[in-house]
Design brief:
Blueprint: H1 6-14, H2 18-40, H3 43-60, H4 70-89, H5 106-120, H6 123-134, H7 139-146, H8 150-173
Helix pairs in contact: 1-2, 2-3, 2-4, 2-6, 3-4, 5-8, 6-8
């Protein structure tokens, strides 16, 4: 079974084919949850944001100028919805402002240190980290979703891993290889 290009599905959805839009939703759901999670810091809120993004995309689909760029367009809608939710929920919900808590074990301490380190990354770097490592997406898939080159993805990941390792080393976790 061949995978229909986004442009074909978008065209069909614009012409009222609900099944085509459903296919697009299934295709991009995990990526949108990862993008939202990188901003709001909570998986359940991220799923809500992804659903809001799909609902908004369904309404605004006729405004999509380039049918082949659906993934990047949807990612922008999702990012904006996640930022809105983070603002409404307050800084406590944002991964950028996770409080440092006293950890009861080394595992909890490591988990908290990783969360804090992720929060210190730029939004674009954190987004690529979530897509690659939390959702296991290929560089090619991330490139299609975000509309940036695979080289740019590689560069963002390399810089993000270096910053994460530096932060963890400063927090006393020794030499970290990512």
């Amino acid at each position: 079974m061949s995978r229909e290009p986004d442009s074909v599905l978008v065209e069909a959805a614009m012409n009222g084919d609900g099944d085509s839009f459903t296919q697009l939703c299934r295709r991009y759901y995990a990526a949108m949850v990862a993008i939202a999670h990188s901003i709001v810091g909570d998986r359940h809120l991220a799923e809500d944001v992804a659903q809001q993004a799909f609902a908004k995309a369904a309404v605004k689909l006729p405004q999509l100028a380039t049918k082949g760029r659906f993934g990047g367009w949807l990612a922008t809608i999702c990012r904006n919805a996640a930022r809105d939710m983070a603002r409404r929920a307050g800084a406590a919900q944002s991964v950028q402002h996770l409080p440092a808590r006293a950890a009861e074990s080394r595992e909890n301490a490591a988990s908290e240190a990783v969360k804090e380190a992720l929060g210190r990354l730029s939004a674009s770097a954190r987004e690529v980290v979530y897509l690659r490592f939390y959702d296991g997406m290929s560089y090619e898939h991330i490139s299609a979703i975000l509309g940036i080159s695979e080289q740019a993805i590689n560069g963002r990941l390399r810089r993000a891993k270096r910053k994460l390792a530096e932060h963890l080393r400063r927090e006393g976790f020794g030499e970290v290889r990512l």
